[in-house]
Amino acid sequence: MALVLNEEQRFLRDAAREFLNANAPVEALRKLRDDKDPTGYSSELWHQMAELGWASIILPEEYGGLDFGFTGLGVVMEETGRTLTASPLLASAIVGASALLLAGSEKQKSSLLPKVAAGELTLALALEESHHHRPTHINTTATTEGANIVLNGRKTFVVDGHSADQLLVVARSSGEAESERGLSLLLVPRDAPGVSVQRTIMADSRNAANIVFEQVSVSSDALVGPAGEAWAVLEQVLDRGRVALAAEMLGLALEAFERTVAYLKEREQFGALIGSFQGLQHRAAQMQAELELCRSVVLQALSTIDDAPEQLPLLASLAKAKLNELVKRVTNEAVQMHGGIGVTDELEIGFFLKRARVAMQIFGDTGFHKDRYATLCGY
Amino acid sequence: MTAPIRRDVLQDLDQFRSEARQWLETNCPESQRQPMQAEDQYYGGRNARFPSADAQLWFERMRDKGWICPEWPTEYGGGGLTPQHAKIIKEEMKAVRARTPLYSLGIWMLGPALLEFGNEEQKQQHIPAIINGEVRWCQGYSEPGSGSDLASLQCKAEDQGDHFLVNGSKIWTTAADKSDWIFCLVRTDPNAKNQEGISFLLIDMDDPGVTTTPIELISGESEFCQTFFDNVKVPKSNLVGELNQGWSVAKALLVHERKLMSELGSESPREVLVPSAAARQYLDMVDGKIADAQLRADLVDYDMTMHAIGLTHFRTFEEKLADTRSAAPLVMKYVGTEAEKTKSELLLAILGSQGLGWEGEGFSKAELDTLRLWAMSKAMTIAGGTSEIQLNVIAKNVLQLPQS
Q: From CA B161, how far away is CA B236, in angstroms rounded?
């Protein structure tokens, strides 16, 4: 029953919704933005989320995790999408934790994962080097110098990169430019000598960073998995991130859509509620149809991570491409159907519009995932 | 996280699946596992003949097994099985490529409505005859003046004491020229407001005064007909449900029709090309990729949509088992039929000029069928409630938007 939530998952969803509405509604994001908060998320909120177990949902019990599976994680992500809650959940507890879990040494896992699970340590994946998601186009170098490895290069669009304690850096140890071969994954403390971090203020009022590595020297213990062979794990890690993000985007779309439908039932023009106009009804109904399809895709993709990882690449690209299109359509329609107030900063719909555009870029835009899906289908 | 009881159920279903597979392997003749031509479809009926001895054998074995209608009650010849078991039979039939032994509007549409609304006498008269393929049914809903606005229908049945006198006509009566009986919506109270004066009536097409003419379509086919009723006497015992309450029967039946249409395309006597396979055959490939960027993009959009629709069918099924509800079933007719149209346009584009042949030499059967199916696909978003009506229904019933 991968496509229907069980009782425990429904309970988690209801608890998450209640907690986020009380502690992290959209106003909280507005406040972080207006206060120009240096961290970009509330550390206190993050610790509360960790206490609820959200930072450890996907981790095995031996590392302090709940071992609740990705479908369970998905309901939390969906709820954080509804409230646009800024937190290190995606970057640290899903992407970072998955990298360590799938590729790390026993020592790395036992020393770091319990801290990630407790929300005491945060991670960020330093991957992108251009304006588009090109996970194999890595020019950052990892060169062996004696017992150490020296990193040089520039990263961009590093989600939560300015606040994470440790960076997981994708660098090239060998191989041709743009090749899947020769990539390595290394753990680098954000405050290591030679690391310079520029926080970037993004449209969604959340965090990304440009990071320069200049002669950054780390011991070979910093390698996560064997040198030059990071691609297989990286792809899985990215797919997990894509699916989790798709779950967040589903929540974002549902919330923006529900707010819009509610507005159609209260706004009057020409002496009638505008929701009675067929021109708007049909567009809303088409979005409902897309939402239904997308919900099935997200649920299947989440359960694929736990139950059928060999199908994950196809499902992850399906989910990310479909949800990219969904959030673009729903947020554009949400603004349009709200009319004039839709383009005011006072109305929260604009926050959904902006978060949607950032989420659409993270880990691959629509074109990237359609190309990948087509390639996986053999055409 | 799974309760022990469910594991038992699952084991039971696994067992059933392997038994079903074995039974089908043993009992489905090899000839009944080949792709079908139009003439291979068996619809039953008074004048029907089996397309072959094997088709008859296969039908009779399935009938005796109770698998023609596995979910229907055993007292009327059904299999008395749960939806899970019926789904397994369907899946296993697909797995061994078994043909559908009996095509029947009686099974897909009338039967479920009769089981819900019919009286005991009607069930006994009609349900076994449907399962046994003895009577072929067609549907009489739309009229020349009543398409999307079905409730405005005018075909009338007047109470004459011991019978109804029916006058009027029905259009888009699928295969009416080959059918034995027709289930109709008729106006029994001309003074009542639209939906309130309508009744659901079963009419024997052999009765005097019933005539049918086929309508030629853009596909060159004429599976749809117009049926005329001229002073037709219909026994009162043929009324299903209460007098003037036919709309609720019709609505229940429409749900079955829309569900059916949302699942169509999986089985067709025509040679249905798979777009991704056709692309490899008809398009230039460079490094394993379709060179035409537009067609590649259209194809991946279509494949992703179909992937999502397939998953949503699974979800609605799982929701049914878990006794939870979502809006998914209400959107499936709309998305399913729109996707079928998209598929036909895509195939036409992939085949290029080779997909434009109407008949005769120079084209394969699959190519000719592609064009005919393209023309036929245009009816899919019209029949059974247009896409626009589907969107109205979603807006009203799911989103509960105000009605003007």
A: 9
Q: C-alpha B166: how far from its chain's center?
A: 27
Residues A296 and A361 in one domain: yes
Residue B3: per-residue pLDDT: 39
Taking 60 as the threshold, does the pLDDT of residue B267 lie above it? no
Query: For position A335, which CATH number holds?
Result: 1.20.140.10
Residues A111 and A186 in one domain: no
| Residue written as token pair 């169509």 | B264
| Contact between A57 and A35 (Cβ < 8 Å) | no
Contact yes or no for B126/B202 (Cβ under 8 A): yes
Q: What is the pLDDT of residue B262?
A: 67
| Residue A31 sits at the chain B interface (C-beta within 8 Å) | no
Q: How far apart are CA B279 and CA B300, in angstroms?
A: 11
Q: Which helix (H) or strand (E) holds A198?
A: strand A195-201
Domains and CATH numbers, chain B: 7-103 (no CATH), 137-246 (2.40.110.10), 270-398 (1.20.140.10)
pTM (two decimals): 0.89
Q: What is the pLDDT of residue B223?
A: 85
Produce one character per residue of B251-284: b if its CB has 16 or more CB atoms within 10 Å, e if not: ebbbebbbbbbbeebeeeebbbbebbebbeebbe
Domain harbouring A221, CATH code: 2.40.110.10
* pLDDT tens by residue, B197-218: 999 999 999 999 999 999 999 9
ipTM for the predicted complex? 0.96
A308 assigned to some structural domain: yes
Name the minimum distance, in Å, from the CA of B116 to any CA of chain A. Answer: 28
Q: What range does the domain containing A326 cover?
A: 232-376
Which of B5, B9, B13, B300 is best to mutate for the A interface (most A CBs within 10 A)?
B300
Residue A291 to residue A169: CA distance in whole angstroms: 35
CATH number of the domain at A67, please: 1.10.540.10
A2 in a domain, yes or no? Answer: no
Identify which of A20, A75, A31, A78 has the alpha carbon closest to the alpha carbon of residue A351: A31
Q: Which of A8, A261, A289 sits opposite B331 (nearest CB)?
A: A289
